[in-house]
Amino acid sequence: MPCVLFDEEKEAEHWIELKHTGQNDGVGTVVWDAQQKARYDERVKGTSSYALQVIDFLQKEDSVDSELKKNLSKVKSSSLQRLVTDPDFRRVAGIDIKDGKVITRYEPSEVAKPLSKAANDLLRKDFTVKDIYYKDDRLNYLETFKKTDLPDKTQELSGNWELISTTRPKKADPKKDKPKGKKSNPLISKRHTIIPKSTIIPISQPRVNKIYHELKDLDLRDFENSGAIAFRVFIELSMDSYIEKNPITGVNENSKLSHKLKSVASDLESKGVLDKTN
Questions:
Q1: Which tens digit of pLDDT belongs to each residue from 30-40?
Q2: Judging by DSSP bridges, how do beta strands 156-162 and 101-106 pair with one another?
Q3: Can you list the alpha helix ranges (DSSP code H) found in 145-223?
Q4: Which end of the chain is more exposed for a tag (fewer CB within 10 A), N or C?
Q5: What distance in Å separates the CA atoms of residue 130 and residue 257, rounded to the nearest whole number?
């Protein structure tokens, strides 16, 4: 079999790309999938896609299920790349992008939760790119994330670290690392719903969850009064649900809404979940 041996691999790069990046009108032969192509770019061109950074992180992370690790090479990296480049997905997953690197402020085991779910979903036979192709599709997909799929915000670290890095910052000290409060500039919102479609809140109480979804769709330009009533019901039922799970002395479902709000706020503050900074 005739063959050509190059002195340096760089001289062969053109022919390797022709062979693996598509049929190229009959010149190429074997087509690489998206992840194989990304691996080649990483090795030869020194560029690592966001999807590969996530996959490599999951492969090395101890908390990730071993069965998922076995199948990470089959994850559709182009679809994973589509997710990671979406700011709403990054916000929900607790990651961000800086200088071409995927970064996070959370413990590895925490950020692994949403990223593992995404990888597992992309491995499902019934899950296709159509499920996340458009912005609204991705927002709908984010609604499938349960509380257990999200990073615990109490596990925040003192600074950002890169997923491909082997060193992590220390755990944040709430007293030392508390950001100084500052007034934000007023924004002119173009949305016409009470709750933005990009907001993802896992809610276990069925009725509260139903109203939450309705408030994301109800157009205030047509239903201003209905929106106001539904929002008040949403707030009150949310307070009732909290008080039911976390009994507070001197307040119950028959108390005035103002009393419920003050009592729940005080309870959250005493538990360190809420503060009066702003």
A1: 556 666 666 66
A2: antiparallel
A3: 206-217
A4: N
A5: 43
Task: Tell me if 132 is assigned to some domain.
Answer: yes
Q: How many residues does the chain have?
A: 278
pTM score, whole prediction: 0.66
> What is the rounded distance in angstroms from the CA atom of residue 249 to the CA atom of residue 251?
6
Please indicate, yes or no, whether residues 210 and 130 belong to a single structural domain of this protein. no
Burial 217-228, CB ≥16 within 10 A → b, else e: ebebeeeeeebe
Tell me which residue range forms the domain holding 153: 48-162
Helix (H, G, I), strand (E, B) or coil at 7: coil
In a domain, 145, yes or no: yes
- Kindly state whether residues 150 and 219 are assigned to the same domain: no
Query: 158 and 231 share a domain?
Result: no
Looking up tokens 């173009």 gives 190
Could you tell me if residue 189 is inside a domain? Answer: no
Residue 172 DSSP class: P
Alpha-carbon gap, residue 148 to 139, rounded angstroms: 18
